[in-house]
Amino acid sequence: MTAPLDLVLGPLLFNWSPERIADFYGRIADETPVDRVYLGEVVCGKRAPLLEAALAAAADRLEAGGKTVVWSAPALPATPRERNGARALVAAGGLVELNDLSGLAHLPAGAPFVAGPLLNIYNEAAARELTRRGCVRLCANVELSLAAVAAIARGCPGLEVEVFAYGRLPLALSGRCYHARQHDLHKDNCRFVCNRDPDGLAVRTLEGEPFLAINGVQTLSHGVQLADIPPADLKAAGVGALRLTPHTGDMVAIIAAFRRFADGALDREGLRRAVEAAGPPGPLVNGYLVGKAGLAPVGA
Amino acid sequence: MGSIELVCPAGSPAMLRAAVEAGADSVYCGLRDETNARNFPGLNFSPAELTEATAWAHGRRAKVLVAINTFARAGETDAWMASVDAAVAAGADAIIAADLAVLAYAHEAHSSLRLHLSVQAAANSADAIAFYAEAYGVRRVVLPRVLSAPEIAALIRETSVEIEAFVFGGLCVMAEGRCALSSYATGRSPNLSGVCSPPEAVTFDRSNGQLTPRLAGLAIDRLGDGEPAGYPTLCKGRFEADGAPGYLFEDPVSLNAMGLLKALATAGVRAVKIEGRQRGKAYVARVAAAFRSAIDALDRGEDTLPYERLLSDLAEGGRETAGAYRKTWR
User: Fold this and answer.
1) Cα separations (Å) of A244 from A13, A288, B128, B209?
2) Superfamily classification of domain A6-169+220-290
3) Does A115 reach chain B within 8 Å, measured CB to CB?
């Protein structure tokens, strides 16, 4: 009997209010069987100061609830403020999740770290470059198929592997803020308009087909990833944990459904139905995991 | 060579010769497989062609930089290592790589090989550059197109690694190597397969006097009569948000930073790069000649203004931008 799959909550990618953050993580702490929670402003350095206090309070609350907290570093630190923030996070000690390789310039030699899904780790040899620098856990890049994840896991014995199991797929990062552009604002004076779209702003084709979602400098999928892969197949591929991303909708119900699915108490159809009933922000997709276009719907 | 090295694209041996004859100091090219980020049908070099072309270029004091800048496929990394060996065997002056696996192999197996960090690695800060230099002995970094000219100057003050910057051609609006839009729609992307918005996924519908370019069936623009139609790259398409249709990510423009050559040279940029290995020898001959003239003018203390309009008709979609180099782009 192999160990059960862990459930982990990835960093909040959206610009939620401090009140919403407090309420959300309070429920995660008190009402969910999540094992680990990643906290930190990954997408935009401008948001970080607004959310710092709320996230620190969330960390205390989660730890009091028995959850392990891991701090996530920014994905594309560029300005002096963003770089200083990233450096301070890495230097503070404790386990951090790196989402940009610049973090390795500051990490003390051999200090353990988590490699986030926004790093370009596409093969076992690249993963080994990280493990020999202290990487203890890797959340696979969302473009990778489960077969590729399995090859990485096979090539890196001892590395804990997570897959992106629920949420809009983080597809792209830019120097340009699309929320600001959409509102005819400059990034430097953006008025934080991204706070109007708690799951990102829907992008449709000119024929009205929902396609993507913008979230400041980040572009996500409209479709919501659902890793409805049988737990035995995930474990056979070397996957040790499923990563869920915070969204609106009933995350407590979604986490509960994933726990039952991972424990064999709910089948794929049951997982899909439970997640659909909990209000995901788009249709459920899993194309990447099965080696297709990312937007391929579940069950296709 | 002038104060600043002119690096030009070579999608074929003929294009390589055209670039060097028009004044390129260096050319970059790839092997004919998915180890390079312009894996288009009919492009690139066999190992024998690379060997011959490199010898020809060296005879004209030009350097050959081999792009092995995609991310090796899990379980099949040998093909990428074989490309590194082939580039070395051909006499390449440097390889351009992004994947940690390729950098590590090149550094260990060919310790005297010069390594350039591909733009696909999106190293956008002195911290990121310090990591690649320390870990793999990277000697030059090609900057992602997300930085403004003053930010590049500030970055160069913090690093001793050579900096190369794109100045002309197609423009990624996303941080290069950090974008999966193409695979989300089509299953193939720069990082997975060396192509963006792959040609086999492109179709066009014409109805009611309008042209609809599609990618994997998704409408990514709608063009009226007479509107110029560039290659339908996903992020340059027209979409709708909040009920308003428009170029949400980027207008269909190309980068032309010739007007910033002086600023880039003053900032300490060592080399400037032209995009477009897929665009043929006539293209590279004109662009290389124009930039050669501009760099030479700069070195004589003259203005580059007379050369700035020489290339306007080459822009995809017919329009140009200085992109992120001017901070208002953001």
Assistant:
1) 12, 16, 28, 46
2) Aldolase class I (3.20.20.70)
3) no
